[in-house]
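batch job 7 of whatever, protein = 3-oxoacyl-[acyl-carrier-protein] reductase MabA
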Amino acid sequence: MAAPLSGSSALVTGATSGIGYEIALELAARGAEVVVHGRSAERGAKTVREIENAGGKARFVAADLNDADDVRRLAAAAGEVDILINNAGIYKFGTTAETDDSTFDEHVNVNLRAPYILVQKLVPGMVERGGGSVVNVSTIVASVAGAGTGIYGASKAGLEQLTRVWADEFGGSGVRVNALAVGPTETPGTTAVPGMLAAVAATTTFGRVAEPSEIARAAVFLASPDASYVNGAVLHATGGQRAIAA
């Protein structure tokens, strides 16, 4: 396989399972040295080992994205990166009346504040070096109302707006910032809610859920030179939305 990202480095948050795991493997396969972020040292070591067994380079850094100081520590430990994938996210579904302060704060902290801090700390280095790429992983419910997804969707909608702001702020310096809105995808987190994936998949034109690897390839496209003139975009990897019946 060609290695168009050879010589580059990437930080992928939430890279020890699901979509983030597949993104990390795909980036490594294309030549990037990957900083694997997660909370579990055991799962982190497994991800690094699988990348290395395939001939890639990776290292693991643990951090709690709900803690602002720990996010800053993650940025410092990652060092100079050319690609930042803000993949990690939290989603706890419930109505507005059921959402307590802790749940509200956790969504804002992990889904919105953590990417903000990582961009704040890592993108200025990309600017100094003359280029880089940020991909913010979002969701279809950032733009389409979903039952019980209020604070989750709102936090991701905020991330999409930051994507557009950052594209303007950093684009002139050669740093591209884009978002990837994800549809129903089979991951350990989504399969924990019985019937949810099937119900959402039924609203897509394909009528099926996505594999994490399908989403990963879209994310890596946005991060790669193949998307060199794409900036401030929200790419929908959602399986297409069915038309409203007449």
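notes: The mean pLDDT is 94.
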